[in-house]
Amino acid sequence: xxxxxxxxxxxxxxxxxxxxxxxxxxxxxxxxxxxxxxxxxxxxxxxxxxxxxxxxxxxxxxxxxxxxxxxxxxxxxxxxxxxxxxxxxxxxxxxxxxxxxxxxxxxxxxxxxxxxxxxxxxxxxxxxxxxxxxxxxxxxxxxxxxxxxxxxxxxxxxxxxxxxxxxxxxxxxxxxxxxxxxxxxxxxxxxxxxxxxxxxxxxxxxxxxxxxxxxxxxxxxxxxxxxxxxxxxxxxxxxxxxxxxxxxxxxxxxxxxxxxxxxxxxxxxxxxxxxxxxxxxxxxxxxxxxxxxxxxxxxxxxxxxxxxxxxxxxxxxxxxxxxxxxxxxxxxxxxxxxxxxxxxxxxxxxxxxxxxxxxxxxxxxxxxxxxxxxxxxxxxxxxxx
Amino acid sequence: xxxxxxxxxxxxxxxxxxxxxxxxxxxxxxxxxxxxxxxxxxxxxxxxxxxxxxxxxxxxxxxxxxxxxxxxxxxxxxxxxxxxxxxxxxxxxxxxxxxxxxxxxxxxxxxxxxxxxxxxxxxxxxxxxxxxxxxxxx
Amino acid sequence: xxxxxxxxxxxxxxxxxxxxxxxxxxxxxxxxxxxxxxxxxxxxxxxxxxxxxxxxxxxxxxxxxxxxxxxxxxxxxxxxxxxxxxxxxxxxxxxxxxxxxxxxxxxxxxxxxxxxxxxxxxxxxxxxxxxxxxxxxxxxxxxxxxxxxxxxxxxxxxxxxxxxxxxxxxxxxxxxxxxxxxxxxxxxxxxxxxxxxxxxxxxxxxxxxxxxxxxxxxxxxxxxxxxxxxxxxxxxxxxxxxxxxxxxxxxxxxxxxxxxxxxxx
Lengths: 385, 138, 265
Prior knowledge:
The complex is a heterotrimer of chains A (385), B (138) and C (265).
Chain A lengths: L2 H4 L3 H27 L14 H14 L2 H9 L9 H22 L8 H4 L6 H29 L7 H24 L12 H27 L6 H32 L2 H11 L9 H19 L1 H5 L1 H27 L15 H31 L3
Helix pairs in contact in A: 2-15, 3-5, 3-8, 3-9, 3-14, 4-8, 5-7, 5-15, 7-8, 8-9, 9-10, 9-14, 10-11, 10-12, 12-14
Chain B lengths: L5 H15 L1 H6 L14 H4 L10 H21 L4 E3 L5 E3 L2 H8 L7 H7 L6 H4 L4 H8 L1
Antiparallel strand pairs in B: 1-2
Chain C lengths: L2 H31 L7 E2 L11 E6 H9 L5 H9 L14 E4 L1 H4 L10 H4 L3 E4 L7 H5 L5 E3 L5 E3 L9 H5 L6 E2 L23 E2 L5 H4 L6 H5 L5 E5 L6 H8 L2 E2 L11 E4 L1
Parallel strand pairs in C: 2-11
Antiparallel strand pairs in C: 2-9, 3-4, 5-6, 7-8, 10-11
């Protein structure tokens, strides 16, 4: 089925070339990092995880969100999603690939990666994260590919795929739960040590992921002969709406616990995020940008008129995606380390090579996504779906 | 049988074979002299019984097995002293046992490693004796 | 695509896969069939110190008095020279043992009326070798693990540098090698290894010295005898005697990690 990629038009090839340039730049920076060490990043002994792990965390959410199209279609027989399940599954493949790459670029000893398999350690959440992420990647490749192949042939997908689909539903929830557990089980990191973390992660994931999916579907609708369908997009928009409301609600719960109890371990981190702490306010503009975007998105999504109009829906989806990207892809991870375990503040600013490596991984993920979507869409066009 | 796109494939193959056989071309068919590790360090010369932690033959082929075992025993099982089959006692340590006698890394370890084009990462962390380290960083 | 070509590619792929895993199989087969020649043995040093729960008691007052005579960094220098810990003055700092004031050593415990002389300490901080160590719990490869004698050990050959232990440690006791440490070492101990970039390291309670019957380097170097090392499970040990007589603090005891470094106040 890959041959369709080579028959693609000029615009598509231009897109791949552009992504290729970013991948190459990122790769060059990574080679530099590989030979010099992670010292080329802005990380240090106090803020020891940064941009890479934050992107990883955000993208696990995007990957998990595929379940939001798979579940209604397979469990509730919601026909409108039948047209776009493949888009959800392929988005998951792209997102998990990025997650794995972000883990690898963050390792100090990447060539020892397989020690995780050689010395399996069930008490480590990172071990389980490795298991569920790779499992999820495999599931989505198998399911997506077989479903698409069957669609191309005009037959039903092979029977053995069905159980895998059912497994993939709780599995999607598990990848983000386990990723939240990475943080929520650490003593001494009060910002993360909250039972609601996994729920918060899932809510924000089921909002940001489908928001991206809507944007991708609208793009496909505009540029190809395949129409994902108004009904599907509107159903997704409702999912984004409710998930975003729940996500914001969960954040407010955190704020209540912190500011009503006034326990310094809890308020310090939120102070740093919202107002700045002891003269340090590196993340304050980001936090407020995220907050404002979330409010804009909520207004546009809750109002049925703006949700139903493609133009305003697009704005709402952009706002949702970027608001939650800031929340999980920047502030959540970094703020866990600020203030540090000594209640001191060390600021963290990513370096230029670090940013390029990050962009390179994003480009690699979108490259995979573009190729997969090209295949899916051209098959949909062929069969005239 | 017809080969599709024969021209680029054959050219590609040729380049590949060229690359693979590069060492032969670069050396012009000359044979490198076999390694001759030196055992004449002062520490060894004053030894009455010139005996290593295992037989010469075993050490020649499998010293890395012993080193790896030492590492595991010392780090993971807290066993830091090794008794040889002959009854001699050594710290299970590359730096504190091996390099005390074989203080000539360049003439001992490196001769064979270089001959077979091997760069063991042991030396990234385990320092050869002082004079050797000084030479290496010059 | 024509069927023959497809089959050809499949077979080629299978062959490549087979050949690439062949060496692995060979190696594992070899390990089983080839034991080292005779059975050599491992033995403890006759003087080796054995314990069940190694711990350290820091007499803050003694340390303080020593520091009044002029700044004292003897324990830090001894540790860092013996273990080849590089000096990197930045956020990428490496340290196994260091000084800190009261407020930052015991966050939340300090208040504004703490005696002036107590505020600055110094408090000597190092890995607490917790009885319930979160770093060990989170490590995905068992590269950091708890020994029978209570020491939280680092296996630097196994560490993948994911830095999960650094996020897990509530005491900031762990240092990551952001750079190659070699250029930052002013002097080297040729009897102890250095580290590669990309691994996490920390205090090991001088496990290599205990194995030879020596006390940890910091304890030995302290001119004020402010650091006392011993086995808490041994009722006759000095650490037990001191702790049963004098009031002591542990850092962040409320987290339940059960640190084994005690501060006499």
